[in-house]
From TrEMBL, chains A, B:
Residues 8-334 form the AMP-dependent synthetase/ligase domain. Residues 384-457 form the AMP-binding enzyme C-terminal domain. Pathway: Quinol/quinone metabolism; 1,4-dihydroxy-2-naphthoate biosynthesis; 1,4-dihydroxy-2-naphthoate from chorismate: step 5/7; Quinol/quinone metabolism; menaquinone biosynthesis. GO terms for biological process: fatty acid metabolic process; menaquinone biosynthetic process. CDD domains: OSB_CoA_lg. This is 2-succinylbenzoate--CoA ligase. HAMAP family: MenE (MF_00731). Keywords: ATP-binding, Ligase, Menaquinone biosynthesis, Nucleotide-binding. Belongs to the ATP-dependent AMP-binding enzyme family. MenE subfamily. It catalyses: 2-succinylbenzoate + ATP + CoA = 2-succinylbenzoyl-CoA + AMP + diphosphate. Its EC number is 6.2.1.26. InterPro entries: AMP-bd_C, AMP-bd_C_sf, AMP-binding_CS, AMP-dep_synth/lig_dom, ANL_N_sf, MenE.
């Protein structure tokens, strides 16, 4: 289906409404669009055209925000590069995606061999570009690589249709008011951040863009009354909770939690403090959240990720894997038919996560299927053990993974970040009281910090690799 | 695109939320769905199957509400019959649409020759029906006949896609909150009413269904705090304004006005009373409102119908006709290729209405193109004259139409409903002060009432017919 160009339509609908707030400066949709048009002209002068694969390596800043829109206006496909990757990892993605050109923030230019720096682009003379008047929704909008637990990263294809339905499905659950705005302190090279930018033009609401997750600054914004919604991952939420007791400005109506389940402790604190936490489940392949708690159920269904957003569907396969269906789900992986075929079964997308639906149809995500520890034929869910371990106050962070074992196949090992009062014997005592013997970690390893992704997810696979070395 | 069955999806998402309030009785989506399934089984037992054309002749009541859903669940196409039509008019539609079966409210059975009465249906033994699991959005959902100003009525085809996009476009403009509900006192056999039912299952909000527009009852509901939104036509709004001074409960956040522009007086009263009036423009062919005032602009752009909803588009043709494009627009007229071809130009739908866009892109609807009076080469807009005439307090209602004239081609004639203090000379005085001489009605005809449609629109064509007799 051919749809009107979203940004241009938004400018016609609400030119004077705020589109972006970055470093305290507000810009309207009209102003953003003018800046985007100029950048599109400069990109055009540099030879960038419709359907070309263009990589973007930037930070959460105004220029990257504008470039994302400018590339969409030209009809280019944007490969979003994670700026925390190594030069080698980036080189793999550029090659795998057959990238035509790279646009790179000056501060990140060491990460690539060749490309157009932001300042170079700005100095380029403007040439009137050919902008898309309408958007064919089946066209590819963006590519984001995800690192599975095994094998090479795969380039997730996101169409305009995927982004559109994600935004519409979200609004049917979270609602929309005239006072809405979305605070984006998650990376815009991730779907969590990019989806906020897409919602902004579809809903006509401002993005409060933050370069870093600075909990003091974020808390200040949440208290200002200007922000209605924020997307966070667990580690961000934990930092926010430590920053300040109590709730935020009443205009904050949604704290959308993604990127993995939060501990019961964190959820209970939010409940006590009346923080409007909404848990969700989603991934790059689903163009962000696809299963989300309805705000009305947020307090009754603590620990659940909610229900599949309208019109998506969720079901659990016989082996416990969470399967999804819906129009926000990727058509597949770039240049990787094998991975695409492996990701779907009978039209359902295989998430690789294990979970269950309760009697009311609410999804509870247990863990990555690959994180499941099978010990002597028993299924052991790392999160269950982690919840027990976190209840010991001296443990600040924990991750439980399986370690190969000749007798049992695999046994649980706990990696913990602890404070000075930690005593291993006390922790084992808590485990023995709360866990069946086969679930008790065979080993507790004290570490300074746990390996995490750019978005703050614990990388269990990196811990597992230690055992295989 | 195949989408999940809307009602069933809604039941999975929010089974315990209120779906319908009729005659004070609340029913949840779960309860509604159970009743719908039983009715679908009875319809199935009566031989009603997917893709059959089934006419429905009912009132705004629970049974008609359930039947609309039941027919959708079976995948039948529903021809919505206007219950104010004559037996002869209904017979034309039944024949033209090649209807397989008619379901009729007992009180309306005299309007048809043969069909299944509601009570007969209820007495039918249930048989397990074949319900649609998924909905192909390109399928035809409903047919509604519209009477153009000339020729036979045409059956407007409404697909599921049309209804879906209408609901989504509306939410992107009006927003959605947990407290929302929609009061439906407009006929559900019209798109204004049916679209409320569709939004209800897509948004998960209650429909407050009223059999009649009883202004006392409606005012009571608007003061109750239970209703956030109501759809009205001008005559209903005028009755509401007479019923009570001041505004309603603060939970009433949208009074959506459709079915023709309101007078400046009415708009000013709403502004004074702080009534959240939102003007809109739409028709059966656009699956309800497609151009609507954003609530934020409601007070700055009095008299405007607003902007084309996301992602629809509006433009004005060289001759002043309002043209529309967007996914809620009908694919055409049933069994009437000629009318379908005539209704579109270069992919744009020709509304038959005349209007203009102001400098900010807001639409102002002037009138039906067919109502335009061309007198001695000058365009005369009846609404302009009507606004002047209404400013004379002794005039309660007015309609201006063209009358054939040998010298000028056409001249304006005013039909007025007046009270006892009316003096023709005074009215002419007002006209002479405010209107160019060629715009002054050549004749003022006092009538007891003006001819109106079921939805309260003045039927100018009926007045014009008087001159051609």
């Amino acid at each position: 289906m051919d749809m009107t160009n979203w940004l241009q339509k938004r400018v016609r609908l609400s030119p004077k409404e705020t589109a972006l707030v970055f470093e305290g400066k507000e810009e309207t949709f009209e102003e953003i669009n003018q800046a985007v048009e100029i950048l599109a002209g400069k990109l055009f002068a540099r030879g960038i055209r419709k359907d070309q694969m263009i990589a973007l390596l930037g930070k959460n800043d105004r220029m990257t925000f504008l470039l994302i829109h400018a590339l969409q206006q030209l009809g280019a496909v944007t490969l979003f590069l994670n700026n925390r990757l190594t030069k080698k990892e980036i080189a793999f993605q550029l090659m795998n995606a057959e990238v035509k050109e790279v646009i790179v923030a000056d501060s990140l230019e060491d990460k690539i061999t060749t490309g157009i720096r932001y300042t170079e682009l700005q100095e380029t003379e403007y040439e009137k570009p050919e902008l898309l008047e309408t958007w064919d929704l089946t066209r590819v909008s963006s590519i984001m690589y995800t690192s599975g637990t095994t094998g090479k990263p795969k380039g997730v294809i996101q169409t305009y249709e995927n982004h559109w339905w994600s935004a519409v499905s979200s609004v049917l659950n979270l609602g929309l008011t005239e006072k809405d705005s979305w605070l984006c302190a998650v990376p815009i090279f991730h779907i969590s951040g990019l989806s906020i930018m897409m919602r902004s033009i579809i809903y006509g609401i401002p993005v409060y863009l933050e370069e870093h997750f600075d909990e003091a600054k974020i808390t200040q914004l949440l208290e200002s009354g200007h922000v209605s919604t924020i997307s966070v991952v667990t580690s961000m939420l934990e930092r926010l909770l430590k920053m300040k007791e109590g709730s935020y400005h009443p205009n904050v109506r949604t704290v959308l939690l993604g990127g993995g389940p939060a501990s019961k402790t964190v959820l209970e604190i939010c409940k006590q403090r009346d923080i409007p936490l909404v848990q969700s489940f989603g991934m790059t392949e689903t163009a962000s959240q696809i299963v989300t708690l309805p705000p009305k159920d947020a307090l009754n269904k603590i620990g659940s990720s909610g229900k599949a957003l309208f019109p998506a569907e969720v079901k659990i396969a016989d082996d416990g894997e969470i399967l999804l269906k819906g129009p926000s789900i990727t058509p597949g992986y770039l240049n990787n038919e094998e991975a695409t075929n492996a990701a779907f079964t009978d039209g359902w997308f295989k998430t690789g996560d294990i979970g269950y639906l309760d009697d009311d149809g609410f999804l509870f995500v247990l863990e990555r299927r690959s994180d499941l520890i099978i010990s002597g034929g028993e299924n052991i869910y790392p999160t269950e053990i982690e919840h027990v371990i976190t209840s010991y106050g001296a443990v600040k962070e924990v991750a439980v993974v399986g370690k190969p074992d000749d007798k049992w196949g695999s046994v649980p090992v706990a990696y913990v970040v602890v404070d000075e009062v930690f005593k291993e014997a006390e922790l084992f005592g808590i485990c023995e009281t709360n866990l069946a013997s086969y679930k008790i970690p065979k080993q507790i390893v004290i570490v300074d910090k746990l390996p995490k992704t750019a978005s703050g997810k614990i990388q269990r696979n990196k811990l597992k690799e230690r055992h295989s070395k």
